[in-house]
Design a protein that fits this description.
It is built from 2 helices and 9 strands. It is mainly beta. It has a single domain, classed as Sandwich (Immunoglobulin-like). It is globular. The mean pLDDT is 96.
């Protein structure tokens, strides 16, 4: 079944912004035309893009939390573990917590589009990375159902 992309409840008011609408539409089109291997019965994370800013020593991760459980999710807590496939640099593991007040609800086969700043060690200039440059996933997942 196709994944329906949505934004967090707290960001729904931004859907009137043309740039936000365009991003959601582009991500939806990407999910409509790309086959992913999901782990069933849990939340999956699909990393789409990473924008590294050297002065901040951090990368803005654009990704999607995909609900592949058989229940509506009202909150997600997890550790996000990402790594570069071909670079000798480290993306630090971060703990994420998205309560119901933030996400609202995430139905089965829905994807929550997020932007998260993650510290990075070992890069020396600004760079943009895509889904082919970074791998990883979630651990210690706790769901509020």
């Amino acid at each position: 079944m196709a994944i329906k992309i949505k934004v967090a409840k707290v960001h729904e008011s931004q859907l009137g912004d043309e740039e936000i609408k365009r991003e959601v539409s582009e991500v939806q089109e990407f999910f409509n035309t790309t086959d992913f291997q999901y782990s069933e019965g849990t939340i999956n994370f699909v990393m789409l893009r990473g924008i590294y800013t050297h002065v901040k020593r951090s990368m803005l991760i654009v990704g999607v939390y995909v609900n592949k459980t058989d229940k509506c999710i009202h909150g997600i807590s997890s550790e996000l573990n990402l790594k570069f496939k071909n670079l000798n640099a480290q993306i630090l593991t971060i703990e994420t917590m998205f309560p119901e007040e933030f996400i609202g609800k995430l139905d089965v086969d829905e994807g929550l589009l997020i932007h998260i700043d993650v510290p990075v060690i070992g890069l020396d200039k600004d760079a943009i990375f895509n889904i082919n440059d970074i791998s990883g996933g979630l651990s210690n997942v706790k769901l509020i159902i």
